[in-house]
Write a structure and sequence with these properties.
Layout (H helix, E strand, L loop, with lengths): L2 H37 L3 H37 L1
Helix pairs in contact: 1-2
């Protein structure tokens, strides 16, 4: 693999990791809101946060799968 291709693929992996980390940060912030709702209950907001948490968790899973698949491609390309 030439250096330009290596750099491009490594950059893509870095961006994917950044996206995953951002989604995990969103989950953490949602959890803080959910915790705050124990002191100041609001059923509508609680429901919205639970849905947002589910979607963000699914995003993390999907991005992690994409990273795994891309890493396999990256490793194969390095061996050629």
């Amino acid at each position: 693999m030439d250096q330009a291709k290596y750099d491009q693929m490594q950059g893509m992996l870095n961006k994917l990791e950044d996206i995953k980390n951002s989604q995990e940060s969103i989950i953490d912030k949602i959890n803080h809101v959910i915790t705050d709702l124990f002191q100041n209950p609001d059923k509508d907001l609680e429901k919205a946060m639970e849905e947002a948490h589910e979607k963000a968790s699914a995003n993390v899973d999907k991005i992690a799968e994409a990273i795994d698949e891309y890493e396999i491609k990256f490793n194969k390309a390095q061996q050629q």
